[in-house]
Amino acid sequence: MSPNLSRRTTLRLGLGLGMSVSFLGVPALAAESRSPKLVVIICRGAMDGLSVSPPIRDSAYLDLRGSIAITPDKALPLDSDFGLHPKLVNLHRLALAGQARIAPAVAWPVHIRSHFEAQDLLETGADKLYGAQTGWLNRCVQALSGDKPARAIAVAPQAPLILQGAAPYDTWSPGAQFNPDGSRLAGILQELYQPDPVLGPAFAAGLAVEHEAMTLNANAPALKANDAKDFATAAARFLSDPGGPAIAVISLDGFDTHAGQGAAEGQLANRLANLDDVVAGLESGLGQDWSRTVVVVATEFGRTARINGTGGTDHGTASTLIVAGGAVKGRGIIGDWPGLGAGQLFENRDTAPTLDMRRVFKTLVVDHLGVDRRTADEQVFPGGRDAARIPDLV
Amino acid sequence: MSLPSRDLQASIAATRFGLGARPGEISRIASDPRGWLIAQIRPDAVPVPMNPVGLAFPDSRARWLDFVAYKEAEKAAGADTDRRRAAGESFRQAVAAEMLGRTTAAATTDAPFAERWALFWSNHFTVSTRKGQELDALAASFEREAIRPHVFGRFETLLIASSRHPAMLLYLDQQNSIGPNSRAGQRRTAGLNENLAREIMELHTLGVKAGYTQADVTEFARALTGWSVGRRGQPGEAGGQFFYRPNVHEPGDRTVFGRHYPAGEEDQALRVLADLAASDKTATHLATQIATHFVSETPDPRLVRRLADAYRSSRGDLSVVARTLIDAPEAWSEDAAKIKAPYELLVSAYRAVGQTPRDYGREVNNPLNLLGQRPLSAPQPNGWSERAADWAAPDALVKRLQWAQGFAASYASQTDPAAVATDALGVRLRPLTLATLQRAESRKEALAVLLMSPEFQRR
């Protein structure tokens, strides 16, 4: 692990102890903020694609779904074939404005139904189980780092696997009331952590990012520690900062709806309202930088096409992925719709995958962030050369 | 592989196998650190959280009734928000009191290895309050009833106790799973819920790499149908307790992971659980989990093999496995590879100063929430992470520092920080850290330095 050290400058505290506290010297590079931005939102627990983007014209949908179906009168219409869940009002508005698209049948090419293995694949970017131990966004940061290191941040206390690896990374979340500037204790600890390969770099990066956050959040209402929308605001402030990170990660959980899933209202509806708030918070927080931003919303796999015995759904295969942001191009769904009719389901239970999730990620890495194609093929998504980029997406 | 010096063994025994030394602990055990640990391997050594006057907390049945009463009072309150809030006050206080008792037990016990062993199994069989308020009511009693009594017994007994407890049945959605061909299933559109079946195989027993298939998960889910939780106000059902519903049990023979199970009732799933517990794959999976928790996230394969062999040869006797862990030289490596998770850090701080938290919200719940580990509320069924990189992230360490400063402000007076440090870490205390805290400008600063020092953050 190697949190972000490279951009710090050192301030002597003059305590006569030879200690120093390291924090960020913000480089005033106005050009930086014009770089492309990427926000990855991971919805953990297997988000139900058939509720996110109900296939309203698929004749099998209502029968399969029963009481948890999002009926055509409730769905927010996208086109003649698909709607969006009624809680996704902001995403719907963006879709109508050409700033959001859905991929309704996306999956990782390795089809498994363990949350934890599937999240590992989504985050490591590997083409097989246990094929990589670092996150693909981390390797993407490495690829983007030239003379000046690229930066990525998780808006959370801890870093998700997608960000972990050799390249520096940051984590930050609201809630600290700690001022690193001039903290004697922080200086002492940096001395003590010097030989520690884990605590040393992580702590220095933590002080730097806390300092940066204090600057960014000064004169603004305090952000709440447990509010998804405030996490989005925090992410937007970091991304808009000249010299700040260009990549942010947000994790949302609670999507494992085995029982009492609900339909237009209920358990899943609340989680989707939360997701929609996060996207809206990013859009408003990013302001003019929204035009340079892509937000991708992905989940480890989808859920069974049929309602189960307990008003919910079990682990499935394909689900819906969403791309949103001012940098999104084109219209219409991404990939094909496999249908839910007899003989069309994967293993007679799940939405069949028609699109490799890596194709979307790779398109964003190459065509949006500007990583060269070969590096993306070989290092960011090893073994994924056959996952071709999607034309006219960004 | 040779063992470190006796003094270092004492430090490792108290910090890696235990929960952090209390004042005097390391010197007391220095003559026989391994003997001290081995003496804790007995069911009656496992701490049982008690209320402040030393009485047992209510069992899950009583907790459930409290919960039901609270929900009814809340319903009766209608839209009156003050009354709604008041309706839950005593329930919330009771939950907080139990969680405080749990933390206090960990902070004061003389059998900290037994407590860590119990906490390991509690996390292995994760239930989480994030599922909803029913789990607020039952999570702590799950640990007391299903986990603690069995952690030095046979794994099969522990597995069955966990799988049948209402907290687990509710957490993994088993209670309403209905066999499609059962009497109830034929009458209405209802069906299986395979969540519990899958997580028992993936997380609790075989492990995800064992090679079972979707068909095995579905077959096991069919065998489990009928295992449910009693509803309130239903004649013949004990509300909030395990309840077997014959009319939803899927009839017929089952085949799970290569074994055949003749048709049965409630016992059919018990027979599957017994075979899962006895599987070679389970031995290896549990051995890996234990070595990962106690020693390193990349455990020495020799240690894993020893533990798995002990599991197999003892037919899943967890006291033998625990003894094997203590006897394994790989478990005593000088390198403190593990970063403490937040709960471990907090407990070890109270142990270091010989104090206990008094206010659950202010001293335990709120800081652990900020540090990312509110007790019994893991985000997913695989429990809390064992990876250093997941805990020692930039923001997380700043928040640990903030907490350490607050803790030191409350508990540093009346202490001799250098003595606290020596007592807490023994020979693991580095000269640089000792010199640094001796030069600190206040007791408060010195104690915060100790709590944040690499050797205190690691174990």
Proportion of β residues of chain A?
5-15%
Any idea how many domains of chain A? 2
Number of E strands of chain B: 4
The N- and C-terminal alpha carbons of chain A lie at a distance of: 31 Å
The CATH class of the largest domain in chain A is identified as: Alpha Beta
Strand order in the sheet with the most strands of chain A:
8-7-9-3-10-11-6-12
State the largest interface: A-B, 64 and 58 residues
Structural class of chain A: alpha/beta
Number of helices of chain A: 11
CATH architecture of the largest domain in chain A: 3-Layer(aba) Sandwich
- Overall body shape of chain A: globular
Query: Mind describing the biggest β-sheet of chain A?
Result: 8 strands, mixed
Strands side by side in the biggest sheet of chain B:
1-2
Mean pLDDT of chain B: 95
* Gyration radius over CA of chain B: 23 Å
Describe, in plain words, how this protein is organized in 3D.
The complex is a heterodimer of chains A (394) and B (459). Chain A is of the alpha/beta class and 394 residues long. Chain A has two domains: 1-34 and 176-222, no CATH class; 37-165 and 224-380, Alkaline Phosphatase, subunit A (3-Layer(aba) Sandwich). In chain A, 30% of the residues lie in helices and 14% in strands. Chain A has eleven helices and twelve strands. Chain A has helices at residues 49-52, 61-65, 89-96, 115-124, 136-144, 184-193, 199-217, 228-240, 267-286, 357-368, 373-380, and strands at 8-12, 20-24, 37-43, 76-77, 83-84, 100-107, 152-154, 170-171, 247-252, 293-299, 319-324, 355-356. An eight-stranded mixed β-sheet of chain A has the order 8-7-9-3-10-11-6-12, sandwiched between helices. In chain A, strands 1-2 form a two-stranded antiparallel ribbon. A two-stranded antiparallel ribbon of chain A has the order 4-5. In chain A, helix 6 (184-193) runs antiparallel to helix 7. The longest helix of chain A is centred in the C-terminal third of the chain and has 20 residues, at 267-286. The radius of gyration of chain A is 21 Å and the shape is globular. The model of chain A is unreliable at 5-32 (pLDDT under 50). With 459 residues, chain B is mainly α. Chain B contains 25 helices and four strands. In chain B, a hairpin with a 2-residue loop joins strand 3 (254-256) and strand 4 (259-261). Chain B is globular. Helices cover 58% and strands 3% of the residues of chain B. Among the domains of chain B are: 172-278, no CATH class; 342-457, no CATH class. In chain B, the strands form two sheets. A two-stranded antiparallel sheet of chain B has the order 1-2. At the A-B interface, helix 4, strand 8, helix 6 and helix 7 of A face helix 12, helix 19, helix 20, helix 21 and helix 23 of B.
